[in-house]
Amino acid sequence: MIRSIINEWMKLKEAGLVKEIQKIQTVRLDEEEDELVEVDNPTDLSLLSKHEKYAVFRLDENRCILIFAKEGYAEREYENRWLGAKKGISFGAYDWGKNYVVTDYLEATTLQEYLESHIMTRELAEKIIKLLDDLDESGFMTNQAPQDILIFSNESLKVENLKKNLTGKPPFPKKMLKGLGVHAKTFLNFVLEVDKARYEEWGRLPEFQEFVENKE
To answer: Where are the strands (E) in 70-208, listed by range?
Structure first.
C-alpha cells in the first residue's frame, strides 16, 4: 500500500504537480509565537489548515502537502515525520522539496476544534498525558499546541508539528494548556488525579504557578 502511494506520488511529481505547488505562497507576516501563516493559493488544491511555519493542502484521497513559509524547514520536518510515524505519534512522509513535504492524509480533526463541541474527559486527559510521555521518550518537544494535535474517531491522538527537544528536561506544556482555554483547568484536575508526580513537578515552576493562579 505504502509503495503504491509513493509510486503514485512520483508519477504526479513527474507530471508537473511541483510546478503547480510552487504557485502557492505561504507567508509569516508576524514572528509572534502563535501567529499563523497567510496563504495565497491560486490553484485548485484545497487548504486544510494553517500553522506557525506552514499550511497544509489536500493532494488526493491519500496524501496532503505541507508548504512552508521559509526554506530550510522541510527536510527536518520530513525526518521528524518519518521518526514520529515509526513511534506511532505521527503519520508517514513520502517526499520533500526545498519548501514542501508530502505526507499521509488522514481523516481527523484538531484537538482545538474537537473541544469546541466536546468536554474534557478523564479518558481524553489520560491519552494526552500518554502522548506527552511518548513525545518525550522519542526526543520530541512536549509543548504542543492543540491545533497541532489530531484526534481521530476513536480518540487516538497524533501530532502534526513535531519538533526535536534540544533543551533536555521538558518544561510544562504551556502552549498546549493555553490553547485548551476553558478546558485547561479540568485537564489539570485530571492530571492531579492520575499523575500527581507530574503535576507536582510542573508546580515547582514559577510559570506554571502563575498560569494556575490566572485560571482561578
So the answer is: 93-96, 100-104, 109-110, 149-151, 157-159
Architecture in CATH for domain 2-104: 2-Layer Sandwich (3.30)
pLDDT profile of the chain (216 residues), mean per 10: 54 65 84 78 89 88 89 90 90 86 88 95 96 92 90 90 77 90 95 95 89 77
CA torsion, ordered 34, 37, 38, 41, to nearest 10 deg: -150
User: Of the candidates 175, 170, 144, 139, which has an alpha carbon nearest to the alpha carbon of residue 157?
Assistant: 144
Domain coordinates of the chain in residue numbers? 2-104, 109-215
Report if pTM > 0.70.
yes
Element (H, E) at 200: helix 196-203
Instruction: Give the C-alpha separation, 96 to 56, whole Å.
Output: 14
Task: Specify the fold of 109-215.
Answer: Transferase(Phosphotransferase); domain 1 (1.10.510)
